[in-house]
Amino acid sequence: QVQVVESGGGLVQPGDSLRLSCATSGRPLSPYAMAWFRQAPGKEREFVAGINRAATTRYAESVKGRLAISRDNAKNAAYLQMNSLQPEDTAVYYCAVRWSPLGTTVPRSTGEYSTWGQGTQVTVSS
Q1: pLDDT (tens digit, 9 = 90+) per residue, 20-48?
Q2: First-to-last CA distance in the chain?
Q3: How far apart are CA 41 and CA 23, in angstroms?
Q4: 47-67 burial, b for 16+ CB within 10 Å, e for fewer?
Q5: What is the 3-state secondary structure (H, E, C) of 66-116?
Q6: How far apart are CA 112 and CA 17, in angstroms?
């Protein structure tokens, strides 16, 4: 059974940092792309950051410069370093995995990813 598990969320104050982790298991081959999405109450799930097998990254404009995605191909894991967190970053953060190649791009749409974790809550509040 393929499994994706996120961890590292929590309650922090504005300006604080968090590091989210995404661990995958159950499939020997490395993912083509891993991405972080987030969903706030009453809002659509939105793309935050993604990284492909070649370490090409892509970010939502709103988080560029504050958040950084990375991956460990040996561990089939991905991470999201979140700095200077603000209340608008409050959401459930989901790790998504695409297994099949898609050129050299990092897709931004939810439909391009087939395996999802259960999410980890990030709350930024003063």
Answers
A1: 999 999 887 889 999 999 999 999 999 99
A2: 40
A3: 25
A4: bbbbbbbeeebbbbeebeeeb
A5: CEEEEEECCCCEEEEEECCCCHHHCEEEEEEEECCCECECCCCCHHHCCEE
A6: 29
